[in-house]
Design goal:
single chain; 385 residues; alpha/beta; FAD/NAD(P)-binding domain; D-Amino Acid Oxidase, Chain A, domain 2; 3 domains; eight-stranded mixed sheet; seven-stranded mixed sheet; 11 helices; 18 strands; binds flavin-adenine dinucleotide
Amino acid sequence: MRDVVVVGAGPAGIHAAFLLAQAGLDVVLCEAQSRIGERAICSGVVGDEAFARFDLPKRPILADVRCIQAISPGGRTLEHCTEAPLAQVIDKGEFNRALAERAIAAGVDVQLGCCVNSLGVEKHSVAINFQSAEAGPARLRAQVAIITTGVNGSLSRALGLARPRQFLRALQTELTLPPNGHGTATRVYVGQDVAPGAFAWDIPLGNGKRRVGLMTEQNPEPYFTKLLQRIAPHTDLATLRIDRKGIAQAPVGRAVGERVVAAGEAAGHIKTTTGGGIYYGMLSAELVAEVVTRAFRTRSFSSQTLGEFERYWRSAFGNELMVGYFARKLAGHFTDRQIDGFFEVVRATDLLVRLNGRLKFDWHHRALLATLRALLTLPGGIGTS
Ligand SMILES: Cc1cc2nc3c(=O)[nH]c(=O)nc-3n(C[C@H](O)[C@H](O)[C@H](O)COP(=O)(O)OP(=O)(O)OC[C@H]3O[C@@H](n4cnc5c(N)ncnc54)[C@H](O)[C@@H]3O)c2cc1C
């Protein structure tokens, strides 16, 4: 009988396991892949606040982001640049491995090639049924299980817990390209013809390398082909390694039951504006670890005790997720002409400068509400120019 089994070694699972082991609990971390960070498909942009807050390892950093340019369908540009880095671009596989090293040093028992098929909640424990790469079907028992399986919601679904039901579909590749005259700015492209309902990105990694991708609610393939023709017209698409993955899109309802709780992207804890899940995943991990540690103190693993997690995350970042979700949904209904109009208005009113204090890499809801307020007070409104 173990204290806690954490299922899924992404940033959320590894961080939760680390904090629980630091609190003195006996923690097993089960990861389906044979190596931590394998197939960690991600653009790897992590805000500086996350590095400070979670004392993140610097080893996986590839480049920093000091300038972000957004490009409208008609080619209008908005730019936000700062002296100090806004964010870092990481190698996500290396990042997960560095997090796992510190978790192992804190006492976490990491089981690789451990694909959990089901969780069975019983009166005095939870049974974790898994397929082990070495030993075949096997079973563990623990007082509590934490589900951090990312976008894969099958374990939550089987237990009747809420799980992500809305997804964006993302495609990404890495290219080596000659300088494009945009320096080291990270570029974000929007428009109904670019990535309906979301956006495309072009992130310099240094040494001519760039991470190029997009996410959308629709079939992303034709948009990705168009994006590559625009950014890298001479690239032979057939030779590229293109990664595909879904991104959860909305905070889910109650993802807590007797002895089980879901956190990170598995609970929809992901930035709903941009699809960034590392910061909120780790924040979610911090909160779930606090609730589970408290549950061990009182020896109560009821859904009511673990349900405190629900209250914690809603108060920490519930507003962010909801406002971001509705803002992105609303923006997804803008026509290209309205998007161009929006860029025009933001430039003409110097809105980015006026929002400056409220523009934070990981916290968007105040800037979004201020933007909405500013737009509502404009004579004429968006898209009428
Ligand atoms: C193309 C793309 C670009 C992105 N760019 C960014 C970005 O720039 N910045 C950012 O912050 N976020 C980004 N994200 C999102 C981010 O990668 C995820 O939200 C984040 O990794 C979620 O962390 P997590 O720990 O909740 O889940 P994950 O990182 O998905 O980890 C889940 C783990 O669980 C394991 N697992 C799943 N099922 C089982 C099972 N049954 N048994 C055992 N193990 C299992 C998986 O193998 C995996 O290792 C991007 C996502 C995509 C797809």
